[in-house]
Amino acid sequence: MASSSPLTNIGLLSLVVLIGSGLTGTVGKLLPLVILIAVAVLGSMMSTDSTSTADLAVEIAKGKKLIIVDVRTDDEVKAKPSNPGSIHIPIAEFNDRMSEIPEGPVIVHCAVGMRAKRAGNALRAAGRKPVMNVTDRDAAKKAAREAEELAKKMWRPRSNNNAHISLPSLIAVAIMGSVISSDSTTVADLAAEVAKGKKVTVVDVRSPGELAFRPPLPAALNIPVGQVESMMSAVPKDAPVLVYCASGRRSGSAAKVLREHGYGPVLSTANCDSAKKILDEVEKLAEAEGVTGKTR
């Protein structure tokens, strides 16, 4: 999430696969390797942990300062200087110098992500949060900029001494780059409905055979994609809907049918994992306003 958008990454991955699919003969046999490399490249562009820029922004909006930590070696920093304002602690000295990092949200980077992950894990193990570890200097700069921009748009009621951030303001600017959705509906749209006391209806449009291989999320309605139109009466029409399948194609089709029949907001996403992440994000936003138990 930190260094490029999911759509950009998916586009790059698709391009590599498309090129590979056109190869024939001995070279064509390398297609699985081409795809594997593409997936590795995609992963290297994104944050190497589950912390989001929205998590950082929430803390910044409370008045805390964002800290960027560069764990590259001295020689690497001489060749390519750290971002302005960053704290430089080489990974070899990190455990001994961790106390030098001030309180506040943290972004850790190195050159490719592996050392940043080690440092990030060490900080989290020490009780620091939120901590985002990203790949390199550019990814850290981008993540910091996104978090700062989000924080500026978040509103704090003056009467609240605890700097509580209001849910409507938060969901209006929440970044969901870590969640791949196949339509323009956002997690913020679902959260806005949950804030009104509504519950998200989750619809799994996979086939019964797929469910036997991997069970649906708890409380999810199973309506195979070919039966959505005939069985949509089972889906509450006055509540937000989250639809998923195994890759996003069928869920996108099902969501379109639901919208055409007056349902909304309807968010379609790729699979069980992305659906669960969306529910977690909505729940996190709801808890900020004291609304719980409404996402599932």
UniProtKB/TrEMBL annotation:
Name a Pfam family for this protein.
Rhodanese
Residues in coiled coil: none
Q: What is this protein called?
A: Rhodanese domain-containing protein
Task: Look up keyword Cell division and say if it applies.
Answer: no
Q: Which InterPro entries match?
A: GlpE_sulfurtransferase (IPR050229), Rhodanese-like_dom (IPR001763), Rhodanese-like_dom_sf (IPR036873)
- Output the superkingdom of the source species: Eukaryota
Query: Keyword annotations for this protein?
Result: Membrane, Transmembrane, Transmembrane helix
Q: Where are the transmembrane segments?
A: 12-42
| Rhodanese domain location | 62-149, 196-263
